[in-house]
Amino acid sequence: MAAVDSATVGRMADSLFIERGLRSPGSTRFWVLLVPAAVIASAGVVGDSTATVIGAMIVAPLMTPILGSALALVLADRAQLLRCVLLTPGGALPN
User: Fold this and answer.
1) How buried is residue 28: exposed, middle or buried, by Cβ count under 10 Å (0-12/13-18/19+)?
2) pLDDT tens digit string along 23-71?
C-alpha cells in the first residue's frame, strides 16, 4: 500500500473542505452551483424528464461535502466533519 505524506493530505483537505467564510472561493462556488442545479432539477420535474433531473445531480456540488465528511472522519477532524455533515443536507434543501 502506498504511503500518504502530509503534502498529499493537505492537498486533499484544500480541495474537499469548504471554507467557513461565506465569501470564500470554495463556499461561493458551492452555493453558486446550487442555483443552476435547482433550476435544472425544477425544469426536469416540471417536464417529467428523468435525464434532466440526473443532469441536475451532476451539476450539484454535493459530492464535495460528502467526500469531505469521509476525509474528516479519517483525519478525526471533528470541526470539519460537523461542517461537511451540515453542508450536505443544507445544500440539498434548496433543491
Assistant:
1) middle
2) 667 677 888 888 898 899 999 999 999 999 999 888 888 888 888 899 9
| Cell numbers at 37, concatenated | 442545479
- Cell output for 32: 453558486
CA dist 32 and 43 (Å) reads 18
pLDDT of residue 20: 67
| CA-wise closest residue to 70 among 57, 81, 59 | 81
Cα end-to-end span (Å), the chain? 40
Distance CA 95, CA 42 (A): 8
Q: Other CB atoms closer than 10 Å to residue 34's CB: what's the count?
A: 20
83 CB contacts (<8 Å, ≥6 apart)?
17, 18, 20, 65, 68
